[in-house]
Amino acid sequence: MITFIKGKLVEKNPTEVVIDCNGIGYFVHISLHTYSLIPDQEAIQLYTHLQVKEDSHTLFGFVEKSERDIFRLLISVSGVGASTARTMLSSLQPTQIKEAIASNDVATIQSVKGIGAKTAQRVILDLKDKILKIYDIDEVSVVQSNTNKDEALSALETLGFNRKLAEKVVDKILRETPAETVENIIKLALKKL
After folding, report:
1. Global pTM value
2. Mean pLDDT of 74-89
3. What fold characterizes domain 65-134?
4. Segments making up each domain of the chain, as ranges
């Protein structure tokens, strides 16, 4: 199993990169999340997952180990293949996926292109216990955090801010300080919007 690849970045596209490793060019599939984190420099290291099928060997790359862990959990779910998992990681941040699964947020999982209600429910059903255990997430704090997020977003939307833009700012605030109160989330968001 190839666990990581380190070499010279030859080509960088939103869905794949080519890495020259001692004269061999490796074609590595990536998510948009990884694409946004890849530095514009020659030397690069990606954590990898090698998918072996009858007719192909496909290499998936990730800047963060945590993203690779989420990818592996997602592909363990029946009906979720590598391309669907990569699409999920391109549409949502790994932390958003973890939180959505931990808090039974079917709508967030279903917001990913190509994922229907049944698949979203299966992802949550299959992975909720694993996510709560592996990441030592307290279910109550996730629900509380989501409630605070929803209230803050509603308030910002009422004040006339674009919901998508406000959500990005609020997500960033909650990543830095997850236990923030609704009032403080709104105050901090107003400074950044």
Report:
1. 0.71
2. 93
3. DNA polymerase; domain 1 (1.10.150)
4. 4-62, 65-134, 139-192
